Amino acid sequence: MFMLLTHSQPCFFSFYTNNINMASGQQWVLVEMVQAFYEAPAYHLILEGILILWIIRLLFSKTYKLHETYRLTEKEKEDLIEEWQPEPLVPPVSKDHPSLSYDVVTGPPSHNIIINGKECINFASFNFLGLLDNERVKQKALASLKKYGVGTCGPRGFYGTFDVHLELESRLANFMKTEEAIIYSYGFATIASAIPAYSKRGDIIFVDEAACFSIQKGLQASRSFIKYFKHNDMEDLERLLKEQELEDHKNPRKARVTRKFIVVEGLYINTADICPLPELLKLKYKYKVRIFLEESMSFGVLGEHGRGVTEHFGVNIDDIDLISANMENAVASIGGFCCGRSFVIDHQRLSGQGYCFSASLPPMLAAAAIEALNIMEEDPDIFTVLREKCKHVYTALQGTPGLKLVGVQFAPALHLQLERSSGSRDSDMQLLRTIVEYVSPTRGVALTLARYLEKEERFLPSPSIRVVVTIEQTDQDIQKAVSCIQEAASAVLK
Amino acid sequence: MKAGHVHVHAASHGGLYSRPFIESFEETPMLVAVFTYMSYGILTIFGYLRDFLRHWKIERCNIAREKEEQKDFVPLYQDFENFYNRNIYMRIRDSWNRPLCSVPGAKMDLLEQATHDYNWTFHYTGRVMHDVINLGSYNYLGFADNTGPCADSAAEATMKYGVGVASTRQEIGNLDRHEEMEKLVAKFLGVESAMTFGMGFATNSMNIPALSGKGCLILSDELNHASLVLGARLSGSTIRVFKHNNMQSLEKLLREAIVHGQPRTHRPWKKILIVVEGIYSMEGSVVRLPEVIALKKRYRAYLYLDEAHSIGALGPRGRGVVDYFGLDPCDVDVMMGTFTKSFGAAGGYIAGKRELIEYLRSHSHSAVYATSMSPPVMEQIITSMKCIMGEDGTTMGCERVRQLAKNTVYFRKRLREMGFIIYGNEGSPVVPMMLYMPAKIGAFAREMLKRNIGVVGVGFPATPIIESRARFCISAAHTKDVLDTALSVINEVGDLLQLKYSRRKRQPSLARPFDDNVYEDIDD
Fold first, then answer.
1. Fewer CB within 10 Å, N- or C-terminus of chain A?
2. Residue A122 with chain B: CB contacts under 8 Å
3. B interface test, pick of A105, A115, A153, A327 with most B CB neighbours within 10 Å
4. What is the distance in angstroms between the Cα of B61 and the nearest Cα belonging to chain A?
């Protein structure tokens, strides 16, 4: 074949140049070919003959399938089906598993809480501004119930949008001084639906290690590349960003369509400290990454008017691409919201899964949130008072024997960890549980262990007791709680 | 799922079905399909033209733009991704997101909205459209009400407990009412125990990962809801999809899975979970539960039944699809449902054996990280459930269930007689009516609203591209007069927009009284 080609090259050449008479040219090529055939050496012909025969054989042989190198008979299949035993649907849970027995609260979960039958002062619910049993909020919710009933019977797209929802969205946007806001009916689902709406397969997200579980679920649902940087370590983040920049230089076409995001929390729920927002903004504009800020713990806590960590640092809110928060902490309702520029937020109305495919927030809960916003706007002093109380608790709990306080001074939800761990997580948890049980119900202070799903968390935080400061706690309450904790710690951790 | 014939299973399948199972999905007429594709083609061409004009600034651009300082960032959205939104969805956007200002009951009040720039922005004229007949809300048993025992108990709970809880179930958010409610749900369904969660969507996406993980197989129906798909993805298991409601496809997958094991390593699967829904809300079809349970028992798989739409809406006692077929609730391993549709509240539940619920109490994502359910919502659920069960001393619950079944049969029969193509099972209160062409979705919704009826139109991507439909949700709160008004208006609009596609012989509507024997053979 090869020989035919090489020998025919001059023939074809002349064929193209002399294309006046096709028939004679063809005949001429044929004669040339036959001549070349006779002139060729023997081994050429033999080799080509073998090649032709091999090709014919391959063309006619059966195709080779990798999977069906064996075929099971029907009887073998039935035997396999008979023999197969699945695992039980759920593994058995031991009767004394610590997460199995819940503490039962009778009555409203507000400042004076009745837990397991004993009345205590609440240092465990995230009721930062004390709005859980505020009369105005309850009255507004009641009025809304009398007008709309309880449920909305549909998602936002199908007659589930009420004027209360639209009002709450515009009030939130006004309060945070952004263009638009969008509300979700469940706090956990807010950031877990927002992240996958923007970040898809192939995009890159830089996340802090101490990110909360709902952020982790959002990251998992987005199928993007996740790069963790050490908690609050801007140098580590810059190192990762620089590495990414080098990658981008190698492959500029891919880099032009790969979106990059940084996801951080304002006040971290797991470590109670604050993110360095001004440095993050510098990194944002230097490396062209977008920032998503999760403000569940800092909305209604930080800042002069309670607008969160952007107001605390005096940062322009337009610089942050998306702020997400849940309304279950300071706002004392149910649900969550995202706010930002219309360009960013409007996209979630069609691609936020928790927004499009789920029923909307019951109108009475939205009305309660609006009234809570009213209270926050009317009286900005409450934020200063809350921060004062946080400072008070922070200084008072320093020096507890055997326990160290984790968090910043103005964080309302602090963690008390063991100073020296005993080595095993279970025994640490047992010690802390003993402290919690010592303190409440006999002493009348309600505390709780911070709960995590041990097998699911990526960076499992150390066991700790959650201490939550609310605005309703008086100085005596704080004094009592601190002395109880110190007594418990010295008794249990000798 | 282009079956053109009617499935009737009475005597076949070894008597698995105690009642006739009649589902129909009439085939799309050829001419209609051709015209629908043509209309999408025309819309696409115009879409390109408008994009071109917008790009060259000949036409004013109303789309929100990225910030000036961030213009050189990687674009947040692919331009093409939004093509459908900008050019097709935007034209008929006013059919969705219509705001209400009253109870979403059988009749509702809508805020009138107007647009001056072809649906890019809306403003409210300030007028209210009163007493619009509501055929779109999921209010199957009519519990969406602001008066009555449910609302009263919810009001009491609001004043006593407040609205929020501010803590998770495992920390300090577990109220005594939560435990009572869970016992009631378990009793209602006839199982050992139950657990409730604050959001129906999250119930699926947070609990399927707890039940199945790597090395497990999930067999999920083609048309499962987004929450089930998300939960299955987050779990990390292998997912295989079987054709909608097709038992042969499911059996084939089961046999293949057990015989061949995991891909490549051929190790046996740890467990196999079949995920189906009670009523599929886009098709109106009911799952073939007796056959699924027979298959599950034969191949030792586990069954996860999502009864979001069917709980309260199907069955002679309102206990869902298990009751509809007269089966034993213990046969279903995981029963899941939501309280949004038939109970007029919000939230979801999972029910089953005690071991399952104990495992979920300690390992569910929601119990550890998500706030517990709000007290007034809980009261609404408790009161409405007691009403359906008859424990509040009245027969109101029983009557509502019966009324819903009557309304369903009547509505479907009349629509079919008029000549529309209706999908789904005879007993399902979700009635999809085929529109096919994209423009008709908008036209139908607008014409119905002009005549004071609110309907829901669904198009791509929730349905296949040429099968757009209008979806009616029947409620027990609809009286016969309301339904008759609605039907005459639908008839009028159907003639106006030429929606009567059905090619079956149309029977004239006889002046027959209501057939009270709803659970005997339905003669058609």
1. C
2. 172
3. A153
4. 13
Listed by number, the residues of chain A in 152-171 with a beta carbon closer than 8 Å to a beta carbon of chain B are 152-154, 156-163, 165-166
What is the count of residue pairs from A and B with beta carbons less than 8 Å apart?
352
- The length of chain B is 524
Contact between A359 and B200 (Cβ < 8 Å): yes
Tell whether B145 lies on the interface with A, counting CB pairs under 8 A: yes
Query: Could you write out the three-class secondary structure of A196-243?
Result: HHHCCCCCEEEEECCCCHHHHHHHHHHCCEEEEECCCCHHHHHHHHHH
CB atoms within 10 A of CB B9: 16
pLDDT tens track of chain B, all 524 residues? 444 445 544 434 557 787 788 888 888 889 999 999 999 999 999 999 988 888 888 777 777 778 888 888 888 887 777 788 888 888 898 889 999 999 999 999 999 989 888 888 888 888 999 999 999 999 999 998 888 899 999 999 999 998 988 899 888 889 999 999 999 999 999 999 999 999 999 999 999 999 998 999 999 999 999 999 999 999 999 999 999 999 999 999 999 999 988 988 889 999 999 999 999 989 999 999 999 999 999 999 999 999 999 999 999 998 999 999 999 999 999 999 999 998 989 999 999 999 999 999 999 999 999 999 999 999 999 999 999 998 888 888 899 999 999 999 999 999 999 999 999 998 899 999 999 999 999 999 999 999 999 999 998 888 888 899 999 999 999 999 999 999 999 999 999 999 888 887 655 544 444 444 444 444 44
Is the whole model's pTM more than 0.80, yes or no? yes
Name the 3-class secondary structure at A158.
coil
**Residues on chain B touching A365 (C-beta within 8 angstroms):** 163-164, 374
Chain B nearest C-alpha distance from A322 (Å): 12
Chain B residues whose CB is inside 8 A of the A106 CB are: 175-176
Local structure of A187: helix, strand or coil: helix
CA distances in angstroms from B138 to A396, B106, B365, B423, listed in the order given: 53, 10, 27, 18
Give yes or no for a cis peptide into B432 (omega within 30° of 0): no
Residue with tokens 């638009």: A180
Q: Does B129 touch chain A (CB under 8 A)?
A: no
Question: Under an 8 A CB cutoff, do A221 and B230 touch?
Answer: yes
Distance from CA of B176 to the nearest CA of A (A): 5
pLDDT tens digits, one per residue of B125-175? 889 999 999 999 999 999 988 888 999 999 999 999 989 888 998 888 899
The CB-based long-range contact list for A316-321 (8 Å cut-off, 24+ gap) reads: A317/A176, A317/A177, A317/A178, A318/A178, A318/B67, A319/A281, A319/A284, A319/A291, A320/A291, A320/A292, A320/A293, A321/A290, A321/A291, A321/A292
Q: Which residues, numbered 354 to 373 in chain B, qualify as contacts with chain A under a Cβ-Cβ cut-off of 8 Å?
A: 355-356, 358-363, 365-371
Q: Tell me which amino acid residue A76 is.
A: E
Is B167 in contact with A145 (Cβ distance < 8 A)? no
CB atoms within 10 A of CB B283: 24
* Chain B nearest C-alpha distance from A470 (Å): 12
Chain A stretch 23-52, residues whose beta carbon is closer than 8 A to a beta carbon of chain B: none
* Residues present in chain A in total: 494
pLDDT tens digits, B486-514: 999 999 999 999 988 888 765 554 444 44
- Class of residue A362 by CB neighbours under 10 A (exposed 0-12, middle 13-18, buried 19+): buried
Q: Do the chains contact at A260 and B164, CB–CB below 8 Å?
A: no
Pick the residue of B172, B176, B211, B385 with the most A CBs within 10 A to test the interface with A by mutation: B172
Q: Give the C-alpha separation, B292 to B16, whole Å.
A: 11
